Amino acid sequence: MSDLPRKAVTRTAKLAALPLGFAGRATWGLGKRIGGRSAEIVSRELQQRTADQLFKVLGELKGGAMKFGQALSVFESALPEEIAGPYRAALTKLQEAAPPMPTRTVHAVLTERLGEDWRELFVEFEDKPAAAASIGQVHRAIWHDGREVAVKVQYPGAGEALLSDLSQLSRFARLLGPLVPGMDIKPLITELRDRVSEELDYALEAQAQREHAAEFADDPDVVVPDVVHQSDQVLVTEWIDGIPLAEVINNGTPEQRDRAGQLLARFLFSGPARTGLLHADPHPGNFRLLPPVETDEDDDGVEGEFRLGVLDFGTVDRLPGGLPGTIGEALRMTLESDAESVYNLLREEGFVKESIDLDPDAVLDYLQPIIEPAAAEEFTFTRSWMRNQAARVADPRSPANQLGKQLNLPPSYLLIHRVTLSTIGVLCQLNATVRLRDELEDWLPGFLPEQYDEEEAVEAGA
Asked: What letter would DSSP give residue 180?
């Protein structure tokens, strides 16, 4: 029997109490202000208490509640600074750790899935988890052949908990909306629900990780640990040491931040081109900054030679042809200020519905600030830039808000859109200066004019 809160009624009660808690704290704040305390001090205390309760509950419940919290955490940089401060610490708690499963539960799962003699598979096995996430936790161990490994053990009842939590969260998505201005929370929750079966299937995860590990095996910049063993509810992979990206965000040097940001952007765009898969869970807990490969040559100690370690392939988008060429074409046309061509392409792909007519120049004005990082030779991603973009879209008085409501996001682009936004959120948290255009030119189909011409020629020949 798992100690993870499993009964739907228990989990529902905990989640349903969140909006009531928000309202109660608002009343508490009003009372404090009537009592003579300044509005600024009371507001700051109110935000801190709200953040603490929200993410304490999400972390304790694990399951879909924590999954939602992790997805939300990468958008922290879009929050106004007076709100972001108290929320930031609470949000980052979800990126690296959560309350662990009892040891007896871990042993029970390993016995059930690996057999009574499961200990013989390991030279050492650490009962204390090295990391805990939304549907499972990771233990450090040494495999019987001497390799250091990470053993991911799925929480019993994780599937039930995921669906229960996300169903409940969707009921008060409107109340959670203000946490991230300009973002519609309900589609995010719906998409997380749609991915539940994949997230729970360690065979699918192992397959996706093996494909990435094979493709990036000799890559000088990106490290993907290979799969050692897989069974239902247990996944054993190679262990990698490194600095968690959350730590780089909090305490990293400018060189580490820039290097991590460049490699994160490179992995986002190169992964689909090289493997046909898009890593779809880019929160900081899934990345590590690794030291350079040791060689016989003199080490010059340049931090720019750090590598990016990538973990957790439980959620991927399958893109056999890589990222859609439409993205690269639309981006290139927008950079060229070709309003008519951009508008016609967006109509063809369903971003503008047939029943709606928009001004092509207004669409161009809406898009150009968003793609500013692709226009520059290098761009520094900052929280203030992200906040300005969010505010521009969220302000009901702005033309961007009105136009954005009329645009449509086709289902095939939903996950790509969220992963891109999440990655940009992490880049802003890193405050990284990135040569994004270099990565787009190397890996995004249709971005370069000659790519577009070659694709047209191939289609014509076919």
From this structure: S
| Entry pTM | 0.79
Give whole-number Cα distances, 99 to 60, 96, 137, in Å: 6, 11, 10
CA dihedral 182, 184, 189, 191 (to 10 degrees): -100
**Measured distance CA(334)–CA(327) in Å, rounded:** 11
Q: Of 253, 261, 288, give the one whose Cα is nearest residue 382.
A: 261
Tokens of 294: 């040791």
Are 169 and 14 contacting, i.e. CB atoms less than 8 angstroms apart?
Answer: no
Same domain, 12 and 62: yes
Q: Is 354 inside any structural domain?
A: yes
185-194 and 63-73 helices cross at what angle (nearest 10)? 130
CA 62 to chain CA mean position, Å: 16
User: What is the residue range of 75's domain?
Assistant: 8-96+160-194
Q: Based on the structure, what is the number of domains in the chain?
A: 3
Residue 299's CB: how many other CB atoms inside 10 A?
10
**Which DSSP helix (H) or strand (E) runs through 149?**
strand 148-154
- The whole-angstrom distance between residue 262's C-alpha and the CA centroid of its chain comes to 16
Angle, vertex CA 303, rays to CA 301 and CA 305, nearest 5: 95
Check the CA dihedral 240-244-245-248 and report its sign.
negative
Query: Do residue 109 and residue 75 come from a single domain?
Result: no
CATH number at residue 203: 3.30.200
Q: Which residues of 69-106 are buried (b: 16+ CB within 10 A; e: fewer)?
A: bbbbbbbbbbbeeebbebbbebbbbbbbbbebbeeebb
List, for the chain, all residue ranges whose pLDDT scores fall below the cut of 70. Answer: 1-99, 133-134, 165, 167-185, 188, 294-304, 450-462
- Of the residues 210, 238, 266, which one is the last residue of a structural domain? 238
pLDDT tens digits for 276-334? 999 998 988 899 999 987 655 555 544 448 999 999 999 899 999 999 999 999 999 99
3-state secondary structure of 242: coil
